[in-house]
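Entry 14. Two folds queued back to back today. First construct below, sequence then structure tokens.
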Amino acid sequence: MKTNFSDVQNVRHEQAKHSVLISCPPKIHETKFLQYLAQHGEVASHFFFDSNGTHAVVEFVDLQSVESLLSVTKIPSDEDVYVVPYKSRYIRVKTTNAGQQFPKCWPQTSLPMNNLIEKLSTAENIEDQAQMLLDELQLTEESIRLRYLVSSLISDIATAYFPEATVHLYGSSVNSFGKMGCDLDLFLNLEDIKGYKSGKSTGAYTAEFWMRRVSSGRTAQQKILSVIGECIDSFGPGCNEVHKILNARCPLVRFSHQPSGLQCDLTADNKIALRCSELLYIYSNLDHRVRALVFAVRCWARAHGITSSIPGQWITNFSLTMMVLFFLQKRNSPIIPTLDQLKSLAGKKEKCIIDGNDCTFVGDLNKIKQTANTETLDILLIEFLEFYGKFDFKTNCIDIRKGLEKNKPEVAALYIQNPFEQTLNVSKNVNQPQLQRFVNLAQESAFILQDQVRESAKIGKPWGLASILLTNGSDRETTTKRKKKILASERIGGLLDSLKDNGNTGKRKVEH
């Protein structure tokens, strides 16, 4: 049985509600620390991490245990400054015991690229390399738990104003494609507040809340986010560098959560983004090759500057993911279904229309038929690079809803149709030079991988997936020179064959 997206979300949110974030001394006796916490109830799980000091995430079995711990937690006293008396589940534990050890902390970052290439070079085949890369880069269980806890802490602030509102994670943190260190995307959902849309009528009278009126939904979002942003800045423990970016296409509050080391974006009314996250979660969990290929392609693109953490004219990770999904839909035996096929499997209760956009698809993973395709990851990686190395970007656009190339509806270097808001191009920011860099790199990398399959790699040297992550150095230069020699040899061989054939017919043909 595969676990559905909504079930995962419910479990994670419950774990977060039962958890506290604790700032610890640099050295701490772990056993005694847990014994102290056990006074308030059974500890379900815990882990330490290092981010601007040693911290621990502690989950209790019962919610009452959290309340018990907070009830004996003191408000700090400081003679020089006034302490804002906002209580949260981010607390500090002190100890006077000496001679303790540093606790084991889980890593928050993945291996540096050079170390990653060195490790990949020890694998036996490209498929093992792709799995190794996935294991190194993907979000760990600890990172996922920490992200949900930060979301829960922000929810505590937001619900001070809107008690029935909810804060959801979306994007890389929940769609199974998250990389260690990726930003935390959050959105404040106000539309599901009980009784917000309609109230029950009793007799001749109907009661309704008296509420402020504003000119548009966007204006309401801006006002709400402005207030919540101010609260995060003024009262949110550990929240720094708060920026209210309210005039963006999607208004947001951006801030840094210092204890976790996470950069956070909080938006409002962003249900389509959450729906898209669920769609990607479904695709990623249908077949083990999907995530491995996406991570390999993203890592390759980042190594060569095809993608960037800085906004601009680069291809984004989301666009790359759409390209991988489209490619997998185009296999002779498709590895994943199209969005329209997922829609056809949806039940009546799964019909979903958001702002006039059809966002319907089946949510039960167990209703989706498994593919008969058995292609290995080495073949898929090479053919992905070949596929886009010769793709007709000038004429065609990419559409995972239909799984078919079709003419671009408007002029753009790269056109990838938004799966839900179908009039939008998710890659509108990409310009022609950046797209051409991607195409050239795809062609070169495909040749390198094919060449190594023919020659077989030298053990201990960067090869396979590791070789196409190289951005410079003698190994890459040698491969490029070998490519030129092979191409020249093939051209000469083709010309000799042509002359031989023409000689046999008594004719001479010169090709230009």
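Second construct, same run, same settings:
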Amino acid sequence: MAGTCIFAEIYDENTNVYKYYSDGAWNVSSSGKSVPIINPTTRKTHYKVQACTQEEVNKVMESSKAAQKLWAKTPLWKRAEMLHKAAAILKEHKAPIAECLVKEIAKPAKDAVTEVVRSGDLVSYCGEEGVRILGEGKFLTSDSFPGNERSKYCLVSKVPLGVVLAIPPFNYPVNLAVSKIAPALIAGNSLVLKPPTQGAVAALHMVHCFHLAGFPKGLISCITGKGSEIGDFLTMHPGVNCISFTGGDTGIAISKKAGMVPLQMELGGKDACIVLEDADLDLVAANIIKGGFSYSGQRCTAVKVVLVMESVADALVEKVNAKVSKLTVGPPEDNCDITPVVSESSANFIEGLVMDAKQKGATFCQEYKRDGNLIWPLLLDNVKPEMRIAWEEPFGPVLPVIRISTVEQGIHHCNASNFGLQGCVFTRDINKAILIGDAMETGTVQINSAPARGPDHFPFQGLKDSGIGSQGVTNSILMMTKIKSTVINLPSPSYTMG
């Protein structure tokens, strides 16, 4: 069970509240308050976490700053060694962490285990990649620029930024946390984690794995609490030197307040799937199911709108409907394909999009059905641009189909969105695929496959309101460092001797 065995010290048995992590120890907040975590399936409080104060945030920042100075002097190979150790511990204890994911965010049990294992692999890969790219620098000579002689040597190296604030989302609270933690640590930074409320307990368990690996006191911190009380205080704190955020509209507000702090942000998408007449419709249907309905559509890279050529639309909708009918619906403990969405407010938002589409004449391929936070999978055909579902991100198991008469119409709809995370195109003609992909204003285009963030070492970025900067192991490591130049000034050009 979560909170037992090696994880016992992260739980306060006197109050039944999970502790927060700072200065190498598990602590109870002086606020005396807690934040409830609602089980999406039962809609009842399942866990509680500490409601930390602003003063506790200040103390965390002080210890983070001090720890980072020492950590930056730790040999690169030693940093990597410790990441490998943390990864092994994380994978060894995948079961209790996965259990938290099932209870907190209704992630199907098998997918919860996969997330933890994938996270361990990411941490290990980060250690290996960091040793390679951080161990390299540049050597420049002044006489390569016009008008200069060889009187200056420039040594270029990568140095850490300082304190990195990491804010992951509810849907991958472990994987998207370590995708920020591991690059920050290998690069020589300290790390302050503010986990999402739904997913906080899984994140605390994950942090304990780093604690068990023996990282120095103060280097890693995990602050829990209400965003209304410590959210802005954290993101605007003068001790923060970098912010890595994954989530929704909150990121736009953070970017406006962050000032000169480097930002890495992924803020969602309305990923379009363009289907041409010559596409393999069986392949398309399989990818629409995987891309649109896995984890109940609660993924930034989920297929969010299908733009299909009219001539093959009927055939494609028929194939997708046949697969939708086979999706299992129910609790995450039973490994169902469709599980409850994360909160009642999310379910209400999704229902609002569905009702708007119904009022405006969309074709319902299945009966709309909801029980609490559980929404049955729904394909909406003949969706028109005036419907909200054509543009807004449902983050649920509801997928709109828009029939198009030209490829240009599909590209236009994709590019008219304020999002630009990923998109995909299905065709047997590689020339068309490349031309369409180049025209789509998205950070990534998938050819003959549904959108996906991974593998985790691939670059991952969005355009427009979908984000700032690029992620992926290498890009994250580089983003969490800065260039430092050391210039050696010679008394005379080097080639005058001898």
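Quick look at the second one. The chain has a mean pLDDT of 97. Residues 8-266 form a domain with the Aldehyde Dehydrogenase; Chain A, domain 1 fold (CATH 3.40.605.10).
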